[in-house]
Amino acid sequence: MKTSAISRIDFSLMTLGIRIRDLRRPRMKIMQEVGIKQGFHVLDYGCGPGSYIVPLAELVGESGCIYALDANPLAVSSVESLIAKKGLANVQTILSNCETGLQTESVDAVLLYDILHHLKAPGDILAELHRVLKPGGILSVNDHHLKQEEIISRVTGSALFRLSEKKESSINFAK
After folding, report:
1. For the purposes of burial, counting CB atoms within 10 Å of the CB of 106, is it exposed (0-12), middle (13-18) or buried (19 or more)?
2. Which residues lie closer than 8 Å to 50 by C-beta, 6 or more apart?
3. Are the C-beta atoms of 48 and 54 separated by less than 8 Å?
4. How many degrees, rounded to 5, is the angle at CA 118 between CA 113 and CA 102?
5. Domains: count for the chain
6. pTM
7. pLDDT class for 85, splitting at 50, 70, 90?
8. CA dihedral in degrees (143, 172, 170, 81; nearest 10)?
9. Secondary structure letter of residue 118 according to DSSP
10. Residue 119: CATH number of its domain
11. What angle do CA 30, 31, 33 make, to 5 degrees?
12. Which domain holds residue 47?
């Protein structure tokens, strides 16, 4: 993801903050808003501790697949623990700072949540997300550290994506 490393203490504090946020605003509502459906293949790019993984697994069902990618080994380990605890057979983890290792045009939706402001090489990452996203696929972005205009400018400035729709919790883009 080309971001700075995060310590175990910082990761634990971030995880606690995310859990408190999730109690106030359940992730399932946001995933439904994006339009995730049964059978989708979804990439959660910058998955952190995995707060979207369980609702995604429920929405995509057994015929779908979730790829949980993060540059931080602590995040990947956290998601792997969640996978084991919940018995999620349709989730795979990826430890990477940019490349996904996924096939071209193999993903129906990409979540880029609360990570855009951290990216040191957003152009490289947006190019990789464009590569793996199917035609007609959804790039869903949310970053509470940036204003909507900044998100739109950063994503569409790459000329790889166009604004599709603004939702209550995210901004969706198309190839």
Report:
1. middle
2. 44, 68, 75, 78, 79, 82
3. no
4. 60
5. 1
6. 0.86
7. very high
8. -70
9. G
10. 3.40.50.150
11. 65
12. 8-174
